[in-house]
Amino acid sequence: MSRLTGAGEQRGAEVIDEHGDTVPLPVVPSGGDPEKLDYHPGKSRAVAPILKKVALGLAVCLVAGAGYAGLQYIANAPAGPNTRGSHQPVSTPSADQAQAGVQRAVAGEAVLQKMADAVATDHRSEFLNTIDPNSTAFQATARMIFGNLSTLPLGTFQLRYVSEDASGLTPDRKLELGGTQAWLAQVEVSWQLSGFDVTPARETLPVTFVTRDGKTYAASFSERFAAGQRRPVWALGPLEMAKGKRSLVIGLGSATDAKSYVPVADKAVESVSKVWGKKWRQKVIVYLPARQAQMEGILGAQPNTYTQIAAVTMAELDQPAANAPVRIVANPKLFEELGKQGRRIVLTHETTHVASNATASPVPLWLAEGFADYVAFTAVPVQDDSAAKELFKAVRAGKVPATLPTPEAFAASAADLPQAYESAWLANRLIAEREGQDKLVAFYRAVDRSGSTTGLADAFKSVLGMTEAEFVAQWQKYLKRLAGA
Question: Which pLDDT tens digits describe the chain residue by residue (485 residues)?
């Protein structure tokens, strides 16, 4: 996260909340239209005011953890606006019902396998043959999705039938679909971007199937998203892609926008490597949504969650891991307003999170966020009085922080959010000034490697030769001196 753009860091896995009446069925081994996203554009502010905000450190960036924790069957989970909100009792299926469920799973898996094979062979007509001929709107969506998947440098693409959602389709929806049977299933989709991902990205999609005239088709990819369930970027709209030496920028807008971010992202990788070192993949993937709602769809967030956040670093994997596929997701409105300097600061900050494995690291937020700011402001210097304005104002008023920022201080709703980032940045810079930049990196790495609850305390002793309390005392004096208090 970076205070240049506003937010709190989410680590670990987020649970996809599904209705408790989701009935898991035997999984067959594998070899709708996109949800309409409401967007109300506001007036764009001039570049100069936003640059001033950047200098003041008023914006914050977010590190998001892995987007979901696999399929968690949780009762009373909130669903989309067109689904029932109350939990329905689940009756034990009869042998005939269970057998019918298995048959649906086999039929659904066969459709998914044909889809995956068509993507692998770049066979558009075969892909479209799996789409319900009566679902005309979804046919257009399917053409867009296939085009997007053809654009991406896919190394692997797989679809796996996971379970049937017994109450996923309302009677009216089933009647609308027609056919001999129609049902909703949760499907795991995984894809790997060649040259960038070590492991595949994974998400779940609610896929609607319908059988008519003895043949089963896919009829929607967006029937019933549960709260917190993410949407794959390639299902949200037409993609434009631009590739650099160290970056891949995937935009849900014009190619010109994507291309303009490539040199900034490439430069961010270089800047991070100068501080962190070169023992990381030194590559980044940036998602550029065209609308705020698309950003929220990618992140599985509630509307308006990220209105003050310019970028989010997230892992597209079910569990946090060192080799998780990590994406930087930009806030379209704020990124447009930031200007060249602000974009570079934000992308350098977020790229630091990518390099340091922040989405799965045990380091405390003050260290993760402060270190990312340290790297960003080393690459793009900003005057202290501007970058730490809110903190200095508090210190001059006698409100010197008693402790290093807590995790709660980095929440998006925290009243003193700018001060948390400013405090964390200056704590990291103090270490670099007193002990040297290499010691700061060694300190971060020591905390990151530790699997112990005493990892931070141990690193203070072994790397810095002091206790946390001793460091805090030095840091408080440092803040007073910088603020002129």
Answer: 555 544 334 443 222 222 223 333 333 333 333 333 332 322 222 222 222 233 333 234 445 433 222 333 322 334 444 333 334 454 566 888 889 999 999 999 999 999 999 999 999 999 999 999 999 999 999 999 999 999 999 999 999 999 999 888 999 999 999 999 999 999 999 999 999 999 999 999 999 999 999 999 999 998 777 777 899 999 999 999 999 999 999 999 776 689 999 999 999 999 999 999 999 999 999 999 999 899 999 999 888 888 878 899 999 986 767 788 999 999 988 888 888 999 999 999 999 999 999 999 999 999 999 999 999 999 999 999 999 999 999 999 999 999 999 999 988 778 898 999 999 999 999 999 999 999 999 999 999 999 889 999 999 999 999 999 999 999 999 999 999 98
Produce one character per residue of 106-122: b if its CB has 16 or more CB atoms within 10 Å, e if not.
ebbbebbbbbbbbbeee
- Confirm whether 442 is domain-assigned: no
Give domain status of residue 207, yes or no: yes
Q: What is the CA radius of gyration of the chain?
A: 24
Q: In this structure, is residue 251 part of a structural domain? A: yes
251: domain range? 1-75+95-382
Cβ contact 20:329 at 8 Å: no
Q: Is the pTM of this model over 0.85?
A: no
Contact (Cβ atoms closer than 8 angstroms) between residue 112 and residue 160? yes
DSSP state, residue 463: I
The residue whose two tokens read 């270190």 is 371
Residue 174, in any domain of the structure: yes
Please count the structural domains in the chain. 1
